[in-house]
Specification:
The chain is α+β, with helices and mostly antiparallel strands and 576 residues long. It has 3 domains: 47-69 and 110-236 and 412-463, BirA Bifunctional Protein, domain 2 (2-Layer Sandwich); 253-392, YbaK/aminoacyl-tRNA synthetase-associated domain (YbaK protein, Alpha-Beta Complex); 481-572, Rossmann fold. Helices cover 26% and strands 28% of the residues. The chain contains 16 helices and 31 strands. Strands 3, 7, 8, 9, 10, 11, 12, 21 and 24 form a 9-stranded mixed β-sheet that branches. Strands 16-14-15-17-20 form a 5-stranded mixed β-sheet. Strand 5 (94-97) and strand 6 form a beta hairpin. It is globular. It binds one RNA strand of 77 nucleotides through residues 9, 11-19, 27, 34, 36-37, 89, 91-92, 108-109, 140, 142-144, 146, 151, 197-203, 207, 218, 314, 316-317, 417, 420, 422, 450, 452, 486, 488-489, 491, 520-528, 530, 539, 541-543, 551.
Length: 576
Amino acid sequence: MRLSRYLLKTLRETPADADTANHQLMLRAGMVHQVAAGVYGYLPLAWRALQKIERIVREEMDAAGAQEVRLPALHPIELWQESGRAAGMGDILFKVKDRRGHELVLGPTHEEVITDIVRHSVRSYRDLPLILYQIQTKFRDEPRPRSGLLRGREFTMKDAYSFDAGSEGLDRSYQAMAQAYRNIFDRCGLQTIVVEADSGAIGGKDSQEFMVTAAAGEDELLHCPSCGYAANVEKAAFKKLTPGTTAERPPREKVATPGCATIRDVAALLGVPPERTIKAVLYTDETGGLVFVCIRGDLEVNEVKVKNAFKAKDLRPATDAEIRAVGAVPGYASPIGIRREGVKLAVDDSIVSSVDYVTGANQEGYHYRHVFWDRDFMDKDGKPWLGSAYYQDFAKAQPGHGCPKCGLPLEGSRGIEVGHIFKLGTVYSESMGARYLDTAGQEQPIVMGCYGIGVTRILASAIEQHHDEKGIVWPPAIAPFRVYLVGLNLEQEAIRREADALYDELDKAGVEVLYDDREESAGVKFNDADLIGLPVRLTVSPRNVKQGVVEYKVRTAAKADLVERQRILEKLTPSA
RNA sequence: CGGGGUGUGGCGCAGUUGGCUAGCGCACGUGGUUUGGGACCACGAGGUCGCCGGUUCAAAUCCGGCCGCCCCGACCA
């Protein structure tokens, strides 16, 4: 392709609205055009890269036995009502009305549509297993699109769904997809880590995310350098060390702690370490009920774990008024002596019954000491909470905490979620009636899995992970072109002939080459070459032509080599 | 949705105590001189100053409302 004919305008200055590397570089390299918040047009350079990514995805999916389909973006809302997600996904759904006033959804994902298809075509265990996939535009009305292509309202996703006649089959499909995903990301030149993930309110059991490690990532990850455990912070567990247990149980005692509404103040005043205090964190769920979380003073609450435990759709910090309404006092709250109605009590398993704790007394300026939760947690009628409280893990793992598997300290990092696989089980097949007849002639729900890859996200995260101060450094497999051919002093007829001839030769040989035949100065061309970041740069210039050589420079190399003109093609197409 | 910022040619910005044909750099066109790391000179094209309403002899500038975009948070399969 001749650059003089190509839709590609680079920018010297960085647009003010872009603040992540991928967004800045894609705008500067003339790859994308923003049309609205989170909505982009892909210009030729970006589109070529996307097509390469899609091709890799297709090859690996096909190799894993999946079959490609193409599903509609427009879905009748009834399908979403049937699965229960019309309400469940709420505001994220883009909705449109047709001329008759009938409501339709712009597909944010395709479980409903695919399940609808499969329930109409699969009858018997003989039709299974089946893995179907598509590459499609998805629409999500995100509360906040951001970071260029990393979180858009319209984006390209590869979504695959597996259908099996039992959980062993699902395991096999899941493993096949996991392997295909590893291959895809490796081929795309991405460094990823696979983490255990939260599968959300409607999810099944196993769920893993493929994360591109990058500082701009939205997700917080924890991993263990010694045993390999890795998880999204939403899901991560850790080893909770118990502070010294006590054999005796002194009676509970109220102590004055004026102005000590934080754990730090209370711990300092009473001379106890934070891990011997119990912190109360209060939320209100979508029904208006209060979710009362008790956790050891040195730990933070993981809201996702709380949400999952109570199957809450929505959780927000409770207001002071809501806290007082149940008889608790903000800053001095504990479950001791509060109302029971409308309160769900969550006790983190860091709170061990044999430890002597300090906790709030539900009275301004007072705390209790010598609190043993199994003995002292009682409501206002003196009825024990023990038995009706949820006692499990509600804590947020942090770097430095012990790995749940081997106990050594966990490390933290950030990642961009480029793939997510999980075992759905029979959630959709049951709600939507997708069944098959087993060998005994009995009707069974099909066991499903679903597997997503953010195709546009791969593009953005590849740039996020592979760039330097001058520009993009494309992983070769997804570079829009292989070679950036620079012609210098093309106004000299002899040089232009040489450059044109080299371009034609490479082009005929099937080497993807972008030929900078513009009338620009050397500096402009070299800087654009670095910005666009194709793997190889070739330079034809008067001094090279005189010597019968072409300058050959790999984007990642510090210096260029001079290669004999006749050897260029073989240098670019190594047979061995 | 809460907090913050911002909106002036394609991009980056100035101008905002009300005052003349709204400026600067980059990019763009024409001509000339240059030519290995973002050249120079000359001439030139390009703007409903986000939108609507108000105040005024006069509004990019003051007032009111609305909208877009960006960031933090909430949110988010």
